[in-house]
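Worked problem 6 (solution included).
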Amino acid sequence: MKQILLMIRPLRQAKEFVADLGTVADAFDVLFDPIVQIDFLSIDLPAPQDRVFVFTSANAVAAYARQHTVQKIRAFCVNEATATAAGKAGFDAVAGATDAAGLVDLIDVDHVTYIRARDVSFDLTNALSRKGVECEEFVAYAQSSLRLSMDSLHAIETRHVVLPVLSNTAAESLIDQIDPTEAHNLTVVCISSKVSNHFKTAGFSSIIEAATPNRAGLLTRLAEIGSGCG
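Solution. The predicted structure is:
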């Protein structure tokens, strides 16, 4: 029987992630069960002309692209997934940081426009201010946590489930919903040590970290698991 690959990201992003696995995905029974809901907020975002943008998620890019068409406007992005989304939206995307804190050293201009979620784990605006960079921020979307479906919970208790986790928010939500004593066949594959620490502290037994702390490293680790090398 195949392992289950449980994808908990918003559906569009989850399907893109599975597609990027290529033939490796055939090694799994894929179960989509988003536990994060994205709600775009009613806010007028500024026109792109004469601005340099900062995006820390693909959802922020999507929020902006709902209102404006962009052509070759510079944008600093966290991770390659966000940079790819920004590039598709017409931005001249600059990647190179794996988290928002890493963007502080990357940004080399005096003024940026930061499109962000309502709740963020790192105060980028304050960090940039200490560096002397003026950061104009716009809260464009909110995230809310959803409960895992009964199908997912049953699978975790009865099947070997591989669960990629890409954020601290997702980790916290999962820990609130899954009893580690009932999840002996669950393998959590975390994008970084920060994410994996949530599960270690909660007492989960099978935790694997990405080869590198980014989307590509997570795909690499899943490919190893799918081929029986993980």
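Discussion: The chain has two domains: 3-35+146-226, 38-144.
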